[in-house]
Amino acid sequence: MTKKRRLAVISDFHMDSNHFSQEEIDIFLSLLKDLKITDLHFAGDISNDFHGISEPFFKQIELLTELSVTYNLGNHDMVGLSEEEISVSNFQVKNFASTAFVSFHGWYDYSFMTGKIDIKKIIAFKNSFYFDRKIHRQFDDIKITNLELQKLEKLLTELSANPKIDRIIVSTHFVPHQQFIINTRYEKFARFNAYLGSQHFHETFKKFPKISDVVFGHLHQRRLPLTFDKVLYHAHPLGYPYEWQMINHFLEEYPQYQIAENWHLRKRYNAIRKSSDWLKFRKAHLREEFQSALTIFDLDD
User: Fold this and answer.
1) Are 147 and 139 in contact (CB under 8 A)?
2) What is the DSSP letter of 52?
3) Which CATH number is 15's domain given?
């Protein structure tokens, strides 16, 4: 009888920024146990301190559970890491019978920007205001992305040529398709599209018919699965509490907490985050929030 495995992928866990207590981590691990998950993969942005927070967290999970834990890095994970440290966990392959699970970091090349692109302005904004100014990469963004694409194509070519592999599932952090970028007329927000990812990743994926699914995060918007060129894309990042789905449910149940600027996610969260009603609601519904951020695959061993 073929042994079954259950792979769960989650992105943008942001363990430190979300201030998860041990009780909340236990809720997460209990959920995974109840869902009969055997393999857990973090698709980037686990924390802002890879060695100090993320690695001990992985060890804790493996100590408390029977889960096999893997990961690829996001931009937040790369803070304080050398290029060599970043490359160690890039382009990993985990085999599940005839399915290959490929994970790689990804990056961005400004190609999601619309209109005329002023690279000097994009770089200046990044170096002055964007989070990634804290990351020190060996090459510029466009070269990094090109190197990622070259390595990705080489790996996918090798896997596709293997007759023992009939399916490839991919996990990455950065956005691989333009359908998921920020659609806004406001330049203030549109400029962030430069740092989201690259359409060139999708152009690479569609060359390989064995690729069935791609899971990614980075942009904190949960979307229904979408198929492009026979590749099914999954975007269910956990993100920050002010972005969580449960806030809408909370405000429906407790309308007295609604504010005039209810569209402003941070402001509406700040209006409730210390209230006893919210804290009780968060505890009661955190399990559901975690579950909605999981992408699950049933696979053979």
Assistant:
1) yes
2) I
3) 3.60.21.10
Give the bridge partners for 69, in sequence order. Answer: 40
Other residues' Cβ atoms within 10 Å of the Cβ of residue 158: 12
Q: Which two tokens stand for residue 275?
A: 């209230």
pLDDT tens column, 139-183: 999 999 999 999 999 999 999 999 999 999 999 999 999 999 877
Query: Is 175:111 a contact under the CB 8 Å cutoff?
Result: no
Q: What is the pLDDT of residues 225-266, one digit of tens each?
A: 999 999 999 999 999 999 999 999 999 999 999 999 988 999
Nearest to 99 by CA among 2, 31, 238: 2
In the chain, the number of structural domains is 1
List Cβ neighbours of 142 (8 Å cut-off, separation of 6 or more).
109, 110
Sheet holding 39-43, edge to edge: 68-72, 39-43, 4-10, 295-300
**pTM to 2 decimals?**
0.95
Cα–Cα dist 295/299, whole Å: 13
Which residue range forms the structural domain that includes residue 115?
4-240+287-300
The reply to whether 271 falls in a domain is no
